[in-house]
Amino acid sequence: MSWGQIEGPAGNYLPGVLLGSTRPAPDLTNVGCSSRTLAFPEPLFRLDAIVIARWSVSTYKITVDRPAAPAYKGTFQFEDADVPSSKFTADCYWNPDKRIPQGVYEKCSLTTMATKKRDGVYLPNVNGFTGVFLHKGESLPGISAVKTWSDGCILLEPSMMSKLALSIAPRDGYNVTVTVND
Questions:
Q1: Segment (H or E) for 147
Q2: Secondary element (H or E) of residue 181
Q3: Nearest to 65 by CA among 56, 54, 76
């Protein structure tokens, strides 16, 4: 290991502490300093190791396959890209009078729905709709229940929504891609 100068933007230090140093910062009153290099009269610390921490966030894929209108029941598939054994499928439902456009919805998130106070996967930027979620519905698959629970949202049976919510971390992570196929 070598001792010497620290390069970086001028003023990139805290008085008394620099990069975890246990030594006090030197008096910089008479030290030449440019905007690119800080030259210290004595070494402040010795670097013995570099530790790089990498936060790994899983990416999740949800695919909804819908038959042609006026159908209101299709297939939902979930997959954690990092854990192939996580894949599961279930029936899903939607209001046939309020079908969202098919497409790929990126940066979706598992979150708590503000007005309903329950788990849902939020789909941003759905053309012609606001507040679209993939969430639970009760008394499915009856069409009257589906229409009651969905204003464009995609519905899962409560047990499947619970399984989905337990499978996604972190919440509000913008780490889910939802693909809706017709």
A1: helix 143-149
A2: strand 176-181
A3: 76
| Alpha carbon distance 39, 178 (integer Å) | 52
DSSP 3: -
Q: Dihedral of CA 86/87/91/93: which sign?
A: positive
Give the residue from 101, 41, 37 showing the smallest Cα distance to 69. 101
Nearest CA to 105 out of 180, 182, 181, 170 is that of: 180
Within 10 A of 37 (CB to CB), how many other CB atoms are there?
13
Q: Which two tokens stand for residue 96?
A: 């046939």
Distances (CA, A) of 120 to 18, 58, 71, 100, 143: 44, 18, 23, 16, 21
pLDDT in tens, 62-71: 999 999 988 9
Query: Cα–Cα distance between 18 and 36 in angstroms, integer?
Result: 17
Of 56 and 165, which is predicted with more confidence? 165
CATH of region 60-181: 2.40.440.10
pLDDT at res. 127:
96
Is 70 exceeded by the pLDDT of residue 60?
yes
Question: Where do the structural domains in the chain lie, given as residue ranges?
Answer: 1-53, 60-181
